[in-house]
Amino acid sequence: MSDPAGVRLESWQDDDGPLTEKRVMGFLEREGYEVAVYAYREGTVFEEHTHPHDKCEAVLGGFFLVTVGGVAYEMKPGDLLYIPAGTPHSAEVVGRRTVVSLDGTRW
Fold it and tell me: 0.90 cut: is pTM over it?
């Protein structure tokens, strides 16, 4: 199954520098995103929903499963998932580790 329209998963590269909250936040802000930091505990589930804005989810710690249009993205530290406005998606924490995430929104 191919990626839903406009959805893309990218990974932080070694040449981008160390994977830190400050560095990833700066990267997203330079791309025009407003960024909030969240921590999601084991068992956290977000049922399918949409946002009226473009979204980028960047995982700094833990493992997050985001499903978009039947495609499951298994996110690990350093992964960034770009989701266009209005795209239905769901998410859940995988495993016992708390997910630390940077949630970027762009209008």
Answer: yes
